[in-house]
Write a structure and sequence with these properties.
Layout (H helix, E strand, L loop, with lengths): L12 H6 L7 E7 L6 E8 L5 E7 L7 E7 L6 E6 L5 E5 L6 E7 L7 E7 L6 E7 L6 E7 L6 E6 L2 E3 L20 H18 L1
Antiparallel strand pairs: 1-2, 2-3, 3-4, 4-5, 5-6, 6-7, 7-8, 8-9, 9-10, 10-11, 11-12
């Protein structure tokens, strides 16, 4: 009677090292640029549902450098956030229902673990309604500005916990054209004669 041989289990560690993004739960689609060599973007899909999970966009001049990453909701397929790496790291977060931008988190240019500011948007107009500026530690809020989405003017701000109202522009009681003196008929006639003399000599 032959004995059963205990075959060694196949280890996929080497594949994981070669392709760190590879997972049994996801599938990837590589999109190349027109030259057919450099990578434009890599789209990741859920292996079971086929819905898009993430799109990684690469720099036009260096396809090893990531330009931005779009992340999507597995259920609805709508975009939930975009991470940008162009000049500095920033994260745009989106509302799942409307698909509109909710807020933008900007990070420190020298240290991307520290927040420099956060902008919040009005869902109806898409305009900025709140700006929070952080201190150097990247954790403590220094100033909060609230903006009217219709007029786009600062309504109030909080500076180190003290709420203040913005300065009102100086209002003039008279308009700039109220003090302009109109010419009388004699002055108009003198100017007309001067123009006739000038053109008469020229021609």
């Amino acid at each position: 009677m032959k004995q059963k041989m205990n075959l060694p289990k196949i280890d996929n560690t080497h594949l994981t090292l070669l392709f760190p993004h590879m997972s049994s739960e996801t599938k990837e689609k590589i999109v190349y640029r027109k030259n057919g060599k450099s990578i434009d973007k890599i789209i990741e899909f859920d292996a079971k549902t086929g819905s898009k999970i993430k799109t990684t966009h690469y720099d036009y001049f260096d396809d090893k450098k990531i330009r931005s990453i779009d992340e999507f909701d597995k259920q609805s397929g709508k975009k939930i956030r975009t991470i940008n790496y162009v000049l500095y790291k920033s994260v745009d977060e989106y509302d799942l229902e409307s698909g509109k931008k909710l807020r933008t988190i900007n990070y420190n240019v020298k240290d991307e673990t520290k927040i420099s500011s956060i902008q919040e948007y009005d869902l109806e107009t898409g305009k900025i309604i709140t700006v929070s500026i952080y201190k150097r530690d990247g954790k403590t809020i220094s100033i909060i500005k609230r903006i009217d989405p219709v007029t786009e003017k600062v309504t109030n701000w909080v500076n180190n916990g003290i709420k203040t109202q913005p300065f009102e522009p100086v209002k003039f009681s008279t308009r700039c054209y109220d003090n302009i003196k109109m010419m009388d008929n004699e002055e108009k006639e003198d100017i007309a004669k001067l123009i006739d003399n000038l053109y008469g000599k020229a021609f």
